[in-house]
Design brief:
Helix content is 53%, strand content 10%. By secondary structure, it is α+β, with helices and mostly antiparallel strands.
Protein backbone atom coordinates (compact mmCIF):
# COMPACT_ATOMS: atom_id res chain seq x y z
CA UNK A 1 0.00 0.00 0.00
CA UNK A 2 1.17 3.54 -0.68
CA UNK A 3 2.23 5.52 2.36
CA UNK A 4 0.19 8.65 3.06
CA UNK A 5 1.32 11.36 5.46
CA UNK A 6 0.31 14.97 5.97
CA UNK A 7 2.98 17.47 6.90
CA UNK A 8 2.67 20.92 8.36
CA UNK A 9 -0.18 23.02 9.69
CA UNK A 10 -2.34 24.84 7.14
CA UNK A 11 -1.63 28.54 7.25
CA UNK A 12 -1.74 31.67 5.14
CA UNK A 13 0.04 30.09 2.18
CA UNK A 14 -2.52 27.27 2.08
CA UNK A 15 -5.29 29.84 2.10
CA UNK A 16 -3.62 31.62 -0.79
CA UNK A 17 -3.48 28.47 -2.94
CA UNK A 18 -6.92 27.29 -1.85
CA UNK A 19 -6.28 24.38 0.49
CA UNK A 20 -3.96 21.51 1.34
CA UNK A 21 -2.56 19.88 -1.81
CA UNK A 22 -1.87 16.16 -2.19
CA UNK A 23 1.12 14.95 -4.16
CA UNK A 24 1.26 11.48 -5.72
CA UNK A 25 4.84 10.44 -6.39
CA UNK A 26 7.29 7.60 -6.18
CA UNK A 27 8.90 6.68 -2.87
CA UNK A 28 12.25 7.87 -4.17
CA UNK A 29 13.77 9.38 -1.04
CA UNK A 30 13.92 13.19 -1.36
CA UNK A 31 14.74 13.08 -5.04
CA UNK A 32 13.21 13.54 -8.46
CA UNK A 33 10.82 15.89 -10.20
CA UNK A 34 8.25 15.44 -7.45
CA UNK A 35 10.67 16.49 -4.76
CA UNK A 36 11.21 19.96 -6.17
CA UNK A 37 7.48 20.59 -5.71
CA UNK A 38 7.70 19.43 -2.10
CA UNK A 39 10.71 21.73 -1.70
CA UNK A 40 8.72 24.74 -2.89
CA UNK A 41 5.90 23.87 -0.51
CA UNK A 42 8.33 23.44 2.38
CA UNK A 43 9.96 26.79 1.63
CA UNK A 44 6.61 28.56 1.29
CA UNK A 45 5.21 27.04 4.49
CA UNK A 46 2.51 25.06 2.69
CA UNK A 47 1.04 22.06 4.51
CA UNK A 48 0.61 19.09 2.17
CA UNK A 49 -0.32 15.43 1.97
CA UNK A 50 2.37 13.15 0.61
CA UNK A 51 1.33 9.90 -1.10
CA UNK A 52 4.33 7.73 -1.93
CA UNK A 53 4.31 4.62 -4.12
CA UNK A 54 7.09 2.05 -3.89
CA UNK A 55 8.72 1.07 -7.17
CA UNK A 56 7.33 -2.45 -6.79
CA UNK A 57 3.72 -1.40 -6.31
CA UNK A 58 3.73 1.57 -8.68
CA UNK A 59 2.95 -0.38 -11.90
CA UNK A 60 -0.31 -1.60 -10.35
CA UNK A 61 -1.31 1.83 -9.07
CA UNK A 62 -0.20 3.45 -12.30
CA UNK A 63 -2.96 1.56 -14.09
CA UNK A 64 -5.57 1.66 -11.33
CA UNK A 65 -5.08 5.14 -9.87
CA UNK A 66 -2.69 7.41 -11.74
CA UNK A 67 -4.17 6.70 -15.19
CA UNK A 68 -7.51 7.99 -13.90
CA UNK A 69 -5.90 11.26 -12.92
CA UNK A 70 -3.36 11.78 -15.70
CA UNK A 71 -3.79 10.33 -19.22
CA UNK A 72 0.00 10.14 -19.67
CA UNK A 73 0.22 8.10 -16.42
CA UNK A 74 3.21 10.16 -15.33
CA UNK A 75 3.89 11.37 -11.81
CA UNK A 76 3.98 13.70 -9.98
CA UNK A 77 0.25 14.31 -9.88
CA UNK A 78 -1.17 16.99 -7.60
CA UNK A 79 -4.74 17.13 -6.31
CA UNK A 80 -6.19 20.28 -4.81
CA UNK A 81 -9.89 20.94 -4.29
CA UNK A 82 -10.91 18.54 -7.03
CA UNK A 83 -8.42 19.98 -9.50
CA UNK A 84 -5.69 17.75 -10.91
CA UNK A 85 -2.33 19.24 -11.82
CA UNK A 86 0.33 17.45 -13.88
CA UNK A 87 3.76 18.18 -15.43
CA UNK A 88 6.20 19.12 -12.69
CA UNK A 89 7.54 22.41 -14.04
CA UNK A 90 4.09 23.63 -15.06
CA UNK A 91 3.02 22.82 -11.49
CA UNK A 92 5.86 24.93 -10.10
CA UNK A 93 4.91 27.87 -12.31
CA UNK A 94 1.25 27.47 -11.31
CA UNK A 95 2.00 27.71 -7.60
CA UNK A 96 4.48 30.53 -8.19
CA UNK A 97 1.71 32.55 -9.83
CA UNK A 98 -0.75 31.71 -7.07
CA UNK A 99 1.69 32.70 -4.36
CA UNK A 100 2.91 35.79 -6.18
CA UNK A 101 6.46 34.59 -5.50
CA UNK A 102 9.12 32.30 -6.96
CA UNK A 103 9.01 34.00 -10.36
CA UNK A 104 10.30 37.16 -11.92
CA UNK A 105 8.42 40.44 -11.97
CA UNK A 106 9.60 41.90 -15.26
CA UNK A 107 9.51 40.08 -18.58
CA UNK A 108 13.31 39.96 -18.55
CA UNK A 109 13.32 38.27 -15.15
CA UNK A 110 10.61 35.81 -16.16
CA UNK A 111 12.50 34.88 -19.31
CA UNK A 112 15.70 34.23 -17.37
CA UNK A 113 13.85 32.08 -14.84
CA UNK A 114 12.17 30.06 -17.60
CA UNK A 115 15.46 29.64 -19.46
CA UNK A 116 17.39 28.37 -16.46
CA UNK A 117 14.55 26.02 -15.59
CA UNK A 118 14.61 24.60 -19.11
CA UNK A 119 18.35 24.06 -18.88
CA UNK A 120 17.80 22.21 -15.63
CA UNK A 121 15.11 20.11 -17.26
CA UNK A 122 17.41 19.16 -20.13
CA UNK A 123 20.14 18.22 -17.66
CA UNK A 124 17.75 16.09 -15.58
CA UNK A 125 16.60 14.16 -18.65
CA UNK A 126 20.17 13.20 -19.51
CA UNK A 127 20.92 12.35 -15.88
CA UNK A 128 17.89 10.08 -15.56
CA UNK A 129 18.63 8.34 -18.86
CA UNK A 130 22.17 7.57 -17.71
CA UNK A 131 21.38 6.73 -14.09
CA UNK A 132 18.51 4.33 -14.79
CA UNK A 133 20.15 2.70 -17.80
CA UNK A 134 20.60 -1.10 -17.56
CA UNK A 135 24.30 -0.40 -18.17
CA UNK A 136 24.44 2.23 -15.42
CA UNK A 137 28.05 1.48 -14.46
CA UNK A 138 29.10 2.58 -17.90
CA UNK A 139 26.47 5.16 -18.84
CA UNK A 140 26.40 7.11 -15.59
CA UNK A 141 30.17 7.25 -15.33
CA UNK A 142 30.28 8.65 -18.87
CA UNK A 143 27.50 11.11 -18.03
CA UNK A 144 29.45 12.42 -15.03
CA UNK A 145 32.43 13.18 -17.24
CA UNK A 146 30.56 14.60 -20.22
CA UNK A 147 27.01 15.93 -20.00
CA UNK A 148 27.12 16.75 -16.31
CA UNK A 149 30.28 18.81 -16.65
CA UNK A 150 28.85 20.50 -19.75
CA UNK A 151 25.73 21.61 -17.88
CA UNK A 152 27.63 22.67 -14.78
CA UNK A 153 29.91 24.83 -16.91
CA UNK A 154 26.98 26.26 -18.88
CA UNK A 155 25.01 27.19 -15.77
CA UNK A 156 28.08 28.67 -14.09
CA UNK A 157 28.60 30.81 -17.21
CA UNK A 158 24.96 31.95 -17.32
CA UNK A 159 24.92 32.90 -13.65
CA UNK A 160 28.23 34.76 -13.70
CA UNK A 161 27.59 36.66 -16.92
CA UNK A 162 24.03 37.93 -16.47
CA UNK A 163 23.52 41.30 -14.79
CA UNK A 164 20.58 40.03 -12.73
CA UNK A 165 22.34 36.88 -11.56
CA UNK A 166 25.37 38.86 -10.40
CA UNK A 167 23.22 40.82 -7.94
CA UNK A 168 22.73 37.99 -5.45
CA UNK A 169 22.87 34.24 -4.87
CA UNK A 170 19.78 33.34 -6.89
CA UNK A 171 19.06 33.21 -10.60
CA UNK A 172 17.59 36.71 -10.66
CA UNK A 173 19.73 38.01 -7.83
CA UNK A 174 18.18 38.49 -4.42
CA UNK A 175 14.79 36.77 -4.91
CA UNK A 176 14.45 33.00 -4.94
CA UNK A 177 12.54 31.49 -7.88
CA UNK A 178 11.33 28.10 -8.95
CA UNK A 179 14.33 27.90 -11.28
CA UNK A 180 16.66 28.02 -8.27
CA UNK A 181 14.79 25.09 -6.76
CA UNK A 182 14.95 23.14 -10.04
CA UNK A 183 18.71 23.62 -10.36
CA UNK A 184 19.25 22.86 -6.69
CA UNK A 185 17.25 19.64 -6.93
CA UNK A 186 19.08 18.25 -9.94
CA UNK A 187 22.41 19.02 -8.27
CA UNK A 188 21.15 17.34 -5.11
CA UNK A 189 20.06 14.27 -7.07
CA UNK A 190 23.46 14.11 -8.75
CA UNK A 191 24.98 14.12 -5.23
CA UNK A 192 26.71 17.44 -5.82
CA UNK A 193 25.24 19.20 -2.77
CA UNK A 194 26.59 16.65 -0.32
CA UNK A 195 30.10 15.95 1.03
CA UNK A 196 30.95 19.59 1.56
CA UNK A 197 30.15 20.52 -2.07
CA UNK A 198 33.58 19.20 -3.02
CA UNK A 199 32.49 18.56 -6.61
CA UNK A 200 31.23 22.13 -6.92
CA UNK A 201 34.54 23.76 -6.02
CA UNK A 202 35.15 24.55 -9.69
CA UNK A 203 31.71 26.18 -9.87
CA UNK A 204 31.61 28.80 -7.09
CA UNK A 205 28.50 30.53 -8.41
CA UNK A 206 26.52 27.28 -8.32
CA UNK A 207 27.89 26.53 -4.87
CA UNK A 208 26.66 29.96 -3.79
CA UNK A 209 23.17 29.07 -5.07
CA UNK A 210 23.17 25.75 -3.20
CA UNK A 211 24.30 27.43 0.02
CA UNK A 212 21.60 30.08 -0.33
CA UNK A 213 18.85 27.50 -0.82
CA UNK A 214 19.97 25.38 2.12
CA UNK A 215 20.28 28.46 4.35
CA UNK A 216 16.65 29.43 3.80
CA UNK A 217 14.93 29.00 7.19
CA UNK A 218 12.18 26.59 6.14
CA UNK A 219 14.49 24.60 3.88
CA UNK A 220 17.03 24.30 6.68
CA UNK A 221 14.34 22.96 9.02
CA UNK A 222 13.21 20.51 6.34
CA UNK A 223 16.73 19.19 5.68
CA UNK A 224 17.18 18.56 9.40
CA UNK A 225 13.79 16.86 9.81
CA UNK A 226 12.56 13.29 9.37
CA UNK A 227 10.77 14.46 6.22
CA UNK A 228 14.12 14.69 4.44
CA UNK A 229 15.00 11.21 3.23
CA UNK A 230 18.31 11.85 1.51
Amino acid sequence: MPSTKTYGTPGAANQTIGGVPTIHYLDFASRGRGQVIRLMWEDAGIAYTDVRYSFDEYPEYKKAVIAQKNPTTNVPVIELNGQILTQSYAILRHFARQLGEYDGETEGEKYLVDKICDIGSDWRTLFVNAFFNPNKAETYSKHQETDRKRFLKALETHLTSHDLSRQGPYVIGKKVTYADLVIYQVMHDENLTQDGRKELQEYPRLKQLVDAIEDRPNVKVFLESERYLG
